[in-house]
Amino acid sequence: MSRLSVSLPGLNMKNPILPASGCFGFGKEYSKWYDLSLLGGITIKAATLEGRFGNPTPRVAETESGMLNAIGLQNPGVANIIENELPALKPYNIPILANIAGSTEEEYIEVTRQISASPLVSAVELNISCPNVKEGGIQFGTHYKSAADLTRKVKEASQKPVYVKLSPNVSNIVEMAQAVEEAGADGLSMINTLVGMKLDWRTGNPILANKTGGLSGPAIKPVAIRMIYEVSQKVSLPIIGMGGVSTAEDVLEMMSAGASAVAVGTANFVNPYICPEIIDSLPALLDEIGVENISEMTGRSFRKWKTPLSSR
Amino acid sequence: MMKHLLKVTSNTEIARNIFEMKLTGPGVGNMTSPGQFLHVSIGNHTSKLLRRPLSICDVDLEREEVTLLYRAQGDGTKQLSEKQNGELVDVLGPLGNGFNMDEVDIKRSALLVGGGIGVPPLYYLGKQLKNTGVQVTFILGYQSLEDSFYIDKFKEIGETIVTTADGSFGIKGFVTDAMEQSLKEEPVIYSVGPAVMLKAVEEKADSLDGYLSLEERMGCGIGACFACVCPTETRKSGYVKICSDGPVFKMGEVVL
């Protein structure tokens, strides 16, 4: 066990860093930039039953300290992913978190059944929080009952642990987290993007062809920290934290809020090397605050005992 | 390593809101294929996150210097225009696939058609084509005389026909209004500009061979985020990614 290793259901990671779904494709693009085996794990782009083209372009717009995207779950379909995309990741020997989406309960269940059967998949991330598709996605993620029902059914269909990816676009994220915990989720991923919009002031028209999109990047990090902080005190599930993380300091902040692992999203677009750079920077930061093992950071914002934890 | 810190050697306004930026440093030596682009960081990774894809306009391999032209239009490119000599610019690249120059070897004549800020990569392309003995003709479209740039430099490479939308310089109209005569020699066509222009060029070119370079808002620039896709009828997937499959495509390959 190295000092950076963390262990979550289905995910034994040599460090707590994994790219977030949708920000890393299926890994092969970034494999040209660095050795993916450096990562703690990888979250692959959402799979749906059939291939999807996604939304019209423009699909991205820059905002202050963030960006809006409305890709629309473009992917080649679950069978194609299992056959062509997953095998390419095998040589890196890192846990694969497979994000799954659908328009109907039946679609979610079938995608889960297929992808969780792949020996290359370590865990499933149930995407009930995509704001950019008309059907499914966030519909399931904003009503407690439908989120819990879907979680229960996906859990039944899955051969691997199930992480439910929560939307911040709800009035009470704690109740949502508790609902999916009760329904049998093994972990939580939070947060997905915040629904936003940007207009061209000259024409009055939205920049995104989809009109609205999901806001990501450093702008949303305080929201993510707050939500993880609140949820982690009320549920006993491990949390994969995400939302605007772009430095090693951000990672430790998010773990302090209650995350057990941390996903990096938009920052990959800013700097393709960001994940390995963050991983490299973590040990020195732990030294600075006198912490031996990174897993001790989780939830220290609300735990009674304070740092340095390793000298307890 | 395809991420470089390049030093600004000049950054000047050469037409209304059009800037010519020259950058030097290791990494320039790989920028040999016209049509490729650099994904340029504005230099402020917290407020302006996304990089700007800028086509390579020219490369001086001996001096390790690359030239980029860009329009200072939004906040990000305005910030870029304020970069001083000696400052460092973080770039990824060269990214994407450049123009295919093989077919032109047989035909020995090429027509390069560009509109507005799409014009820059045609300069580097024209230079390389000329060096291999190809006869190059340019048709360059601008909004007006005030918006035009690099015309004298293009003239050094080959015949250069200019159109302006308002008629303040050259032929009044669009690039397609000036293509007729040049098409008689059945050249290979290379075109860069907004999609609406590329579509018109493609129609005008009819059955001639050619290549189009597409523009789109990009995220990662390396094919991972699926922001800059374009439909196609010729590939099984039904789409191409402009950043990594392109930005150059064969005429007829993508649905404009």
UniProtKB/TrEMBL annotation, chain A:
Q: Which organism does this sequence originate in?
A: Fictibacillus phosphorivorans
What name does the UniProt record give this protein? Dihydroorotate dehydrogenase
EC category name: oxidoreductase
Q: Which residues form the active site?
A: C130 (nucleophile)
Q: Name one GO biological process term.
A: 'de novo' pyrimidine nucleobase biosynthetic process
Q: In which pathway does it act?
A: Pyrimidine metabolism; UMP biosynthesis via de novo pathway; orotate from (S)-dihydroorotate (NAD(+) route): step 1/1
GO cellular component term, pick one:
cytoplasm
Spell out the subunit comment. Heterotetramer of 2 PyrK and 2 PyrD type B subunits.
From TrEMBL, chain B:
* Pathway(s) it belongs to: Pyrimidine metabolism; UMP biosynthesis via de novo pathway; orotate from (S)-dihydroorotate (NAD(+) route): step 1/1
List cofactor names only. [2Fe-2S] cluster; FAD
Please give the Gene Ontology molecular function terms for this protein. Answer: 2 iron, 2 sulfur cluster binding; electron transfer activity; flavin adenine dinucleotide binding; metal ion binding; oxidoreductase activity
- Give the cofactor binding note: Binds 1 [2Fe-2S] cluster per subunit.
Matching CDD domains: DHOD_e_trans
Q: Which Pfam families match?
A: DHODB_Fe-S_bind (PF10418)
Binding locations of [2Fe-2S] cluster? C220, C225, C228, C243
Q: Which InterPro entries match?
A: Cyt_c3_hydrogenase_gsu, Dihydroorotate_DH_ele_sf, Dihydroorotate_DH_Fe-S-bd, Dihydroorotate_DHASE_ETsu, FAD-bd_FR_type, FNR_nucleotide-bd, PyrK_electron_transfer, Riboflavin_synthase-like_b-brl
The FAD-binding FR-type domain extends over 1-101
Self-association and partners: Heterotetramer of 2 PyrK and 2 PyrD type B subunits.
- Indicate the family of this protein: Belongs to the PyrK family.
Q: What is the name attached to this protein's record?
A: Dihydroorotate dehydrogenase B (NAD(+)), electron transfer subunit
Q: Which organism is it from?
A: Fictibacillus phosphorivorans
| Source species taxonomy | Bacteria, Bacillati, Bacillota, Bacilli, Bacillales
Q: Which gene encodes it?
A: pyrK
